Amino acid sequence: xxxxxxxxxxxxxxxxxxxxxxxxxxxxxxxxxxxxxxxxxxxxxxxxxxxxxxxxxxxxxxxxxxxxxxxxxxxxxxxxxxxxxxxxxxxxxxxxxxxxxxxxxxxxxxxxxxxxxxxxxxxxxxxxxxxxxxxxxxxxxxxxxxxxxxxxxxxxxxxxxxxxxxxxxxxxxxxxxxxxxxxxxxxxxxxxxxxxxxxxxxxxxxxxxxxxxxxxxxxxxxxxxxxxxxxxxxxxxxxxxxxxxxxxxxxxxxxxxxxxxxxxxxxxxxxxxxxxxxxxxxxxxxxxxxxxxxxxxxxxxxxxxxxxxxxxxxxxxxxxxxxxxxxxx
Amino acid sequence: xxxxxxxxxxxxxxxxxxxxxxxxxxxxxxxxxxxxxxxxxxxxxxxxxxxxxxxxxxxxxxxxxxxxxxxxxxxxxxxxxxxxxxxxxxxxxxxxxxxxxxxxxxxxxxxxxxxxxxxxxxxxxxxxxxxxxxxxxxxxxxxxxxxxxxxxxxxxxxxxxxxxxxxxxxxxxxxxxxxxxxxxxxxxxxxxxxxxxxxxxxxxxxxxxxxxxxxxxxxxxxxxxxxxxxxxxxxxxxxxxxxxxxxxxxxxxxxxxxxxxxxxxxxxxxxxx
Amino acid sequence: xxxxxxxxxxxxxxxxxxxxxxxxxxxxxxxxxxxxxxxxxxxxxxxxxxxxxxxxxxxxxxxxxxxxxxxxxxxxxxxxxxxxxxxxxxxxxxxxxxxxxxxxxxxxxxxxxxxxxxxxxxxxxxxxxxxxxxxxxxxxxxxxxxxxxxxxxxxxxxxxxxxxxxxxxxxxxxxxxxxxxxxxxxxxxxxxxxxxxxxxxxxxxxxxxxxxxxxxxxxxxxxxxxxxxxxxxxxxxxxxxxxxxxxxxxxxxxxxxxxxxxxxxxxxxxxxxxxxxxxxxxxxxxxxxxxxxxxxxxxxxxxxxxxxxxxxxxxxxxxxxxxxxxxxxxxxxxxxxxxxxxxxxxxxxxxxxxxxxxxxxxxxxxxxxxxxxxxxxxxxxxxxxxxxxxxxxxxxxxxxxxxxx
Amino acid sequence: xxxxxxxxxxxxxxxxxxxxxxxxxxxxxxxxxxxxxxxxxxxxxxxxxxxxxxxxxxxxxxxxxxxxxxxxxxxxxxxxxxxxxxxxxxxxxxxxxxxxxxxxxxxxxxxxxxxxxxxxxxxxxxxxxxxxxxxxxxxxxxxxxxxxxxxxxxxxxxxxxxxxxxxxxxxxxxxxxxxxxxxxxxxxxxxxxxxxxxxxxxxxxxxxxxxxxxxxxxxxxxxxxxxxxxxxxxxxxxxxxxxxxxxxxxxxxxxxxxxxxxxxxxxxxxxxxxxxxx
Amino acid sequence: xxxxxxxxxxxxxxxxxxxxxxxxxxxxxxxxxxxxxxxxxxxxxxxxxxxxxxxxxxxxxxxxxxxxxxxxxxxxxxxxxxxxxxxxxxxxxxxxxxxxxxxxxxxxxxxxxxxxxxxxxxxxxxxxxxxxxxxxxxxxxxxxxxxxxxxxxxxxxxxxxxxxxxxxxxxxxxxxxxxxxxxxxxxxxxxxxxxxxxxxxxxxxxxxxxxxxxxxxxxxxxxxxxxxxxxxxxxxxxxxxxxxxxxxxxxxxxxxxxxxxxxxxxxxxxxxxxxxxxxxxxxxxxxxxxxxxxxxxxxxxxxxxxxxxxxxxxxxxxxxxxxxxxxxxxxxxxxxxxxxxxxxxxxxxxxxxxxxxx
Lengths: 329, 273, 405, 278, 358
Ligand SMILES: Nc1ncnc2c1ncn2[C@@H]1O[C@H](COP(=O)(O)OP(=O)(O)OP(=O)(O)O)[C@@H](O)[C@H]1O
Ligand SMILES: Nc1ncnc2c1ncn2[C@@H]1O[C@H](COP(=O)(O)OP(=O)(O)OP(=O)(O)O)[C@@H](O)[C@H]1O
Ligand SMILES: [Mg+2]
Ligand SMILES: [Mg+2]
Fold this sequence. Notes:
The complex is a heteropentamer of chains A (329), B (273), C (405), D (278) and E (358). Chain B is α/β, with parallel strands linked by helices and 273 residues long. Chain B contains ten helices and twelve strands. Chain B has a six-stranded mixed beta sheet, with helices on both faces. With 405 residues, chain C is an alpha/beta fold. The two termini of chain C are 30 Å apart. In chain C, 65% of the residues are buried. The longest helix of chain C is centred in the C-terminal third of the chain and has 24 residues, at 286-309. Chain C is 43% helix and 15% strand. Chain C has helices at 15-36, 55-66, 78-91, 121-135, 153-169, 186-195, 207-218, 235-238, 261-271, 286-309, 316-324, 330-335, 381-399, and strands at 2-8, 44-50, 95-96, 114-115, 144-150, 172-178, 199-203, 226-228, 249-252, 327-328, 345-346, 357-364, 369-372, 377-378. With 358 residues, chain E is mainly α. Chain E has a domain at 40-266. Chain E has a two-stranded antiparallel sheet with strand order 1-4. A two-stranded antiparallel ribbon of chain E has the order 2-3. The chains are: A mainly alpha (329), B alpha/beta (273), C alpha/beta (405), D alpha/beta (278), E mainly alpha (358). Chains in contact: A-B, A-C, A-D, A-E, B-D, B-E, C-E, D-E. At the A-E interface, helix 3, helix 5, helix 11 and helix 13 of A face helix 6, helix 9, helix 12 and helix 14 of E. One magnesium ion binds at residues 59-60, 102, 193 of chain B. Chain E: Keywords: Cell membrane, Membrane, Transmembrane, Transmembrane helix.
């Protein structure tokens, strides 16, 4: 049986790592929700868009080449240079900030004070739009994402655990990097939200757009700031997931893995995203290992993550760390 | 004369009945905050009972206890002679207790008429099946209740905005619609939480008129929270004064007005007129 | 005018796979038009319709093109194929689901208008096992084989076959479903790492492939013991894993690379004239070749039909006859500039599925190319024939068809 | 309780000028049909009128909060310090020194009372110390808020929220405050107190007030000048002292007839309302 | 003036609460009905039916169902795909188990089965609200799809795991399978659309509808004025799922004929139907139609314009299509946040004032 135990431990450890990756996506949702009460359906597409842009820039691809070629009959594809990863990340960030600015100017500025469902709707439009633009801009072939992150089994953990348990644990290097980055992100964002005036204003905006306006909080500024931050988080998530699976349309579907995390951690809590991610990661992996695969024929992870979150919610309707839903008359 | 258990007749000839509702030693806490501290009060049938007190005294909380939204940690609620078991708010409403809210709680997405009609919900019982067919039972019921609602709309002079979505109304009109919704329920007890906040004197006069008329015509018992002393003193039969969750006075307007505790805690100065 | 609709998907989750196939399909027809003036002198008109791999759009595409005189449909998605099986049959238009769709459509006595030559999913599974037998000197007794599959109708296809084969050859089969889209496969690969199966077979699609190969590399699963079906065997699937994908195997029913005379023609007549369907960068990739191969088979069937009915402008019904009488020989392929490009096979009324000849290819990461490492081998007909007969007769019973030729 | 303040002399600069504005909601509902007012610097100007008259709408037009309600100023102009402010956004208005206390409180429910107040100081850049000082000042004005400072605003009583909203506006150190029904829901002695605060802020710090108020009695006692709105039009204006003496105002806004104030119970018969228009 | 409201006076409350109190509206409505029932069936062919009318009609039913839940009762659900799958699989099991029973019965029964499942998954809505509930309903979505994929009983143990609709008739006319006539399938679906719209309209204008809307706008206040939230929410879930089940059954049996659950009834479907009602207008029956039409027609129209007329490559058109649909959604929202239905209403209000600006 100790072997089973070791397996379970390994599964748990990997669940934790997977959870961190989910949390990275969930963080983007939390940021925007916290700052505007907008449930940003486009977060997944933003991650895709960021990753596409990064891959395209690194590769020196000509944006919109397909469209240009079709319309002008030219035959351009590449600039013929390769941009170093670091610079490319900076450039991508510039693009994401520009995107944030455009989103604010063209969309949300006109929708201040509307109900959440309507803002949600606008992000749906945005998702369609970005998906189309991303495809037009960079093409829909699979690009590999190589910014020099390590990947593959971590030898040190493998050996150490082998000595300790007689069974070497598999932990992916990429996951370790992701965990470190996620931890840094969360610490940074929590500090930002809790201790800065912008952070407080952000929460105020989420509560009441009008009132925030009335005390002079500039929604424009706050929203551009937050969408840029979310763009940054999307970029990080895009890099991680893109490294794992190549950059392609399906990247936008990782949003689906983030939703149960979000729900469990609470839509408004930055630490909640991480804790939620860890619980979901471990929960779904252990369930698959202990019950799903042996008794239910496997592939239970998707629904189990949601069921787990659902069960939590029945006891805490605002998620683990979410702000309590104020019910008063 | 007020001790007569079966009621009495007021100076202006209204019949006040026996106690219909009695709150016994109610204590309500929220975490560390004690919103209501061991308060008892009774409400007689057909009377206008005012609750006054400084901000945060626990008045609204008391209404919430009556309407079943807050469950007190301690104490009992007696209604019509028997102790009320733990109850959901909607069950309380079905017993004939309707109310308005301090922070307007109208259904913003619906028209004024629909809002008033929601007040009639406790009187409508056609099942899903008949409603889905509409013709027949459902339509008849709708029309009957619509008549009641229209009467109240006329009564409150909001005919002109009948079909307007509530979200487009100004604050004061919303208050009036809220009263209409509560009246539409034809309640036996009507709880009003600052119905006249945000109105000018003329409108307060109208509002007072409505309240008195309801009380007169239907014998509705009314519990009223209001900060306008003029209104309170003129309308109410008895007044409870609360401060920091405690009851510091209870009696006729005249008695209360001259109670030193009340003056200190609430009125500030003895009210001139 | 010969109308060939192309239900392509250049958008959506599977665009990366849809683009090369559609390019290959289109380029071959363009080549025929440019070089030969069509088929038998009759010009070809290809109508492309974007499905996004979405069933409903597929229906729209079918309905909007069928009136144009479409000769044969290549639906390119299992979902759309299932839609079209009854519809196209009723409309008398043949469907060629090449290497996908409903396996039992091989039984032409039941599925009169549906063709799935030269190979189907069950052939794939069988040849995979056969290859493993070869590698393991003829015996799989006591070996463990894991099947990693897309948890959908498509992914579940080989299970029956593999179960039969495991009984026959005495290997142990374990099943590892991966839910759509398959970005997160930690559980499955940890399980593989624990159980250490001797071989892994994969029926994957889309991002699932890339992640699986990546994860296999991460746990250092030997790549040459890992084999995918042809839909898990494109450049797209292995490239994201880089070096580490070296040695990964995939089944295929056509050849790889661009070392065939026909590609010179394509360069000359299609790319050179600026009529290439895509950017031209897909030529010679596994999926491009598959598209080209599908177009070639369609053109050959049309030729056969022209021969049978002695008319140039054939109808869909005549096309169907051509498909049913199709015979692909080495000589023919050499003629077409495609020597050894696919297996030799012939189609008949009873057998719409060809001879079940499948080869194994292997990825060479350094050379960035696939290469065939076996010849075309036939699947285990003893096992498959009864399975197909069973499923086909069930369908016949369900939909009230009297089988017959 | 006679505290009628003298009307500010005529030379005083006009800080805010609203010129014949028309406001339309949702592109169809015409609400203000030409409202003009002038708010002198350092004065307290009251905006009176019945429910739905357009007081709130006027204030929102000034603070530019209309946009978020799909309302629009279609005609006329609004000038602050002689600069048109028609197209600036609310945050800009606050930077210019105009802050609005919204009707119906609008506290940030999930923030504590103290955080609410601090958010009020969002636009300020004069350092933490100054802000802390003003925080103390607000707490001194409203001791009740100090008691509840760590509670989430959503869980405080209606009156406490009203205090919070007013305190929040004070925190921005504005030049002009637009007060929408400040007395609503406050206990009588607090109403007095609030107006005393208004008065002292006005006198000591020179803050200009434009207030919409239903409590005409109090409003006219503290204001210098008043406008009466009805159905989106200004129907009367004048120095507060004059208005208080006006017969109609007395009857319909102060509830007084020649015999003095009458009891609410005695208003037996239905009256047709006095309307200047219609 | 193009649009007259004055001059139409109701003299009774019943008259006032009819669906189209204005005569002009009423006549236009009769006209549309007439066209739909008596003209279109004679004009359409396979293309029109299969690529436009059937999806439009069936999505309209689903949209009406979801609108009851989301638009009227305020419970945001992303489980639509899963519930449609329940309808489809129920229909399949019924069709194959009782081949001689009328399709009408099967479809209605599928609706009932779905209603039951809907109520089950509606239970958490008592505690969970807003977007949390939306995400929670995804649990239903994923679980149901997994279940139908996993348990062979549901697909009658067929080798492929797909379900295919056998041929069935209605009054002797083929309505499922390959040998159907365009008009027959059209009319069969239209019948359910009219039924759904009629029932939904009646329910939403009466006391049930008001209970739903009260819960939507402010659930606590609703409870305090006497609405039993559990009852109201569960009836909304039941009725909504009933319609969604019907649409799922039709989607499978009439429109597609063969279905693979993960692909056809996946999460994308849930989003699609939700988008329809938001674009169309929450809390509006007309909006359900408008939204369904918008999302079914627009891509087809764009495709026809882009590919057939302008001759652009299909992929560029497909991408542009995304950009345009996304852009249009945003433009519409900014013009009128409450959907096409509201846009229509405001347009009418303006027409009424025309030629005066206001
Ligand atoms: N749900 C709650 N959670 C925490 N504290 C609460 C809650 N409801 C009320 N309180 C607190 O209880 C006290 C009494 O509140 P209540 O609303 O009853 O006051 P009130 O007498 O109605 O005052 P006002 O006249 O200002 O409306 C307040 O201090 C308030 O902050
Ligand atoms: N968002 C809106 N959409 C449409 N109409 C509106 C909107 N807000 C207000 N109105 C209308 O504008 C008119 C004036 O409203 P406003 O809120 O300015 O009145 P008010 O004078 O502040 O009244 P109160 O004393 O009741 O607050 C009212 O008739 C109201 O119905
Ligand atoms: Mg209160
Ligand atoms: Mg107002």
